[in-house]
Amino acid sequence: MRLTKRKLKLLNRSTVALLALSGGTMGVGHAQEGAGAPPAATSDQNIEKVVVTARRREETLQDVPVSVTAFTADQLSKQGIPDVVALTTTLPNTTLKASRATNSTLTAFIRGVGQADPLAGFESGVGIYIDDIYLARPQGAVVDIYDVERIEVLRGPQGTLYGRNTIGGAVKYVTRKLAPKLDVRLKATAGNYGQIDGVATASTPVSDTVRIGGTIAKFTHDGYGKNLTTGKGNYDKDVTAARASVEITPSSDLFIRIAGDYTLDNSSPKNGHRLYAGKTSGTPVLNNVYDTQAEMVTALGHKQEVRAYGTSALVEYTINPELSFKSITAARRDKSYAPIDFDSLAVVDMEVPALYTNRQFSQEFQLTYTGPQIQGVAGVYYIDANAYNKFDTILANPVALANTSTFTSGDVSTKAWAAYFDGSYNLTSELSLSLGGRYTVDKREADIFRQVFLGLGGSPEMGNPGAVLYQIQTDLPGLSRRDSKFTPRVALNFKVNPDHNAYASYSEGFKGGGFDPRTNVVGAKVSIATARQGYKPETIKTYEAGLKSAFNGGRITTNTALFYSDYKDVQIPGSVAISTKGDGNFDSFAGYTTNAGKAKIKGFEFESIAHVTNDLTLAGMYSYIDAQYKEFMAVLPGASSMSNVADQRYFQNTPKNSANIRANYDIGMPMLGYNGKLSLIGSWAYKAKTYQFEYASELDQDAYHLWDASIVWTRADGKVRAGVHGKNLGDVHYKTAGYYFPTLGKEGTLTAFYGAPRTVQATVEYRF
Known about the structure:
Layout: H1 5-22, E1 51-52, E2 59-60, E3 68-72, H2 73-79, E4 94-98, E5 106-110, E6 113-115, E7 126-130, E8 133-134, E9 148-155, E10 169-175, E11 183-191, E12 195-205, E13 210-221, E14 225-226, E15 233-234, E16 237-251, E17 254-265, E18 273-274, E19 298-299, E20 302-303, E21 305-318, E22 323-341, E23 350-370, E24 374-395, E25 404-426, E26 431-454, E27 468-497, E28 500-511, H3 528-533, E29 538-551, E30 556-572, E31 575-578, E32 588-591, E33 594-611, E34 616-631, E35 633-635, E36 642-644, E37 657-668, E38 676-687, E39 704-715, E40 720-727, E41 735-741, E42 749-754, E43 759-767
Parallel strand pairs: 7-10
Antiparallel strand pairs: 1-2, 3-9, 4-5, 5-6, 7-8, 9-10, 11-12, 11-43, 12-13, 13-16, 14-15, 16-17, 17-21, 18-42, 19-20, 21-22, 22-23, 23-24, 24-25, 25-26, 26-27, 27-28, 28-29, 29-30, 30-33, 31-32, 33-34, 34-37, 35-36, 37-38, 38-39, 39-40, 40-43, 41-42
Subcellular location: Cell outer membrane
Domain TonB-dependent receptor plug: 61-170
Organism: Massilia horti
């Protein structure tokens, strides 16, 4: 891995500031104590340590020999972090964002590995977990932060420690257990763009062994822009969320929790910003990137809506002081009505009304052993999930009488089971060896159906019973494939001394194959035989070395990791313009999923935190990644055979350089007769150029900087907190996603979606 002078200069700037202000020497390490404002020190020897369960047992961040960053509830509160997407600027080599045209569907990439397509048939490369429950689908995975104890983000393949194998990494959302006495918490937020949020939490014991609790939350704001056609807001938010749980402790050895959650997103459709004028109408580009002229507002007669809910049962039993058993049972469902106006104009040119439904059931059993010489976990996991989507592609065409509505239906079921283990053996008091393995079986079944109707009225399935059928393009029921793989992990951990912890690891990751629900076997590049086979599994082999260090009694911690990955058969879903009549006139689009043969990924991650004084804390992050395709076979325009186009392809959502510097300064300040402290918090974040697809386009985002700041007062007893938070203070307009179909429709589609503009919120929290 080569670090150019420019990259070294950026890294030096990130570390020199910490060195200069800390007055000490910095070493290297990994897994910092959390992004944002770190826990304040009470004395030189009393720096608060964060405990995580990255290896399914409690360990401090500086001791756990894996790549993990943790965010405590206090840190999230002090910085006014609204959801998991807002964490992306402080995480090395990580992209978390809302998918195009949605508020609540998540696109996640870690170290170049992820999945941007939310359709049925495509599984995320980054696992999202709520209390160890894997979310099989990205819809509803942009989780608003409430009722949280901490969030952990693990980088690299996760298979020997987690129920579902995730090839790129994992985001763990850990909720707070109920308090042993009456606990009531209120939080209110008001901000620009009409933001009004409220969260109310209450719990109470009903006996010596039973506690009950619940949270209800509402998150709203007006649009950052306006829909000039409908008069409604664009990029608005209207989300209602609730959670309830019952915790039962029949004895000191047994803990049971029954929990349920519900989320309803009634936000308006989010529409993109056209980057060029209409090809036929000449409609000019709008001045405000958050404005739109989209006219589509319903799908199947429903306004935009995402409804998700789930239930779970956790049983933890301590067999003896060294051995414990855990059972995790969960079921989840979600349903989304999504009217997507691709062209973002007041005419019907390219529109996609869609319906998504998902369901899942999972069961995990695990044993954890913590002995003086051996520690480890072993488990079995099963998931039964179904993802179904149906949608119309309504497309106007420059050729007379060629307007079409293409109906697509994809019904994909997944049944997977796995057995896994991961154990550590203390060879000496300083050296330990970890061995792990996982055997996974993924069985995928699918029904894919696709019809073309004449006109712009849509299909009978989507509400137009009088539609005239033109062509059946795909009718593939009963598709099936079975993929299995054993993936090992081995690691050495060397405790140089109590303050320096070095490790080296090798791990493999695996994600099963599947079927593209948009497959078209008429007028496209996909044969029936290829469609029946589906796309292949992808695999990764990752080598990593890290060092985690503490200096000056723990007042300074530094965290470094070097990694190299050999990534094969990378699953690349996409859509291509096609000619349904074979006349060379592009009048529809279809799915075209390929497996890029080979890729190499290498990178560097540095995180640090310095308690300069008891009142001043600095933290920083710098990451670098070099991700390159080495084999990417494709048919070039005008060619009859496939060529290796790896030198023309890029890793999407993977900026080469990312950096962040954060500062927290506390000032003792009484207020309203109460003692307390005022925290001044500021941060700067940098992201290098980001490609939206595997090819260069006008949707790519050049490098940009973001500035945030907060002023927060906390009462000495911690029961009251009030703050003002400013995000993106430079009001930078940066692209996060988009639609790229410039050859389709009369007007052409090239629309971009943007991150939030400058926002300012005032927040008050009160705990009874």
